[in-house]
Write a structure and sequence with these properties.
Blueprint: E1 3-6, H1 7-14, H2 21-39, E2 43-47, E3 59-61, E4 64-68, H3 75-85, E5 93-95, H4 99-107, E6 111-113, H5 115-146
Parallel strand pairs: 1-2, 1-5, 2-4, 5-6
Antiparallel strand pairs: 3-4
Helix pairs in contact: 1-5, 2-5
């Protein structure tokens, strides 16, 4: 199931803007890429404002498609156009806390979740991945002990 994310809306709740716009966008993209990898989902994000010169409109960043509001418009209008053009409306999930945009998206047949709900999904996915990583590391140590290899044996 693909996600279409209201970037500034999510960024305001997750990252904040104290770091500056470009750094906040980069950090959000990093977190979204991690979520997409863990959950094996496709993500697109739409930001308000001018495009980043390193990530032009429609560019991919670690599997995330990055869009920007058109000049003289806003991300909500761009999201509406993307939803209207989508062939996957029934499975599309739009992440926004903007009520008017969420109502429009639902009328088009897509699903919505709030930015806060999505943040919960991101945190849950990261926790599960971290737990799986710890379990894998424990398994590796157990197998190394089974074969008589101690961690210090690998040290140079």
């Amino acid at each position: 199931m693909p996600y279409l994310i209201d970037g500034n809306n999510l960024m305001a709740r997750r990252i904040g803007f104290k770091l500056g716009l470009e750094e906040a966008r980069r950090r959000l993209l990093e977190e979204l890429a991690q979520f997409a990898l863990i959950k094996r989902v496709r993500l697109s994000v739409v930001f308000d404002g001018a495009p980043n010169p390193f990530f032009p409109d429609g560019a991919k960043y670690r599997g995330i498609t990055v869009f920007y509001a058109r000049r003289g418009s806003n991300a909500d209008e761009r999201i509406k156009r993307l939803v209207n053009r989508s062939r996957e409306r029934r499975t599309l999930i739009v992440v926004t806390s903007d009520r008017a945009l969420a109502q429009y998206v639902r009328r088009c047949g897509a699903q919505t979740i709030s930015a806060q709900e999505f943040i919960g999904k991101m945190d849950e996915a990261r926790s599960i991945a971290e737990e799986e990583h710890r379990e894998l590391q424990d398994d590796i140590r157990a197998w190394l002990r089974y074969f008589g290899v101690e961690p210090e044996d690998d040290a140079p």
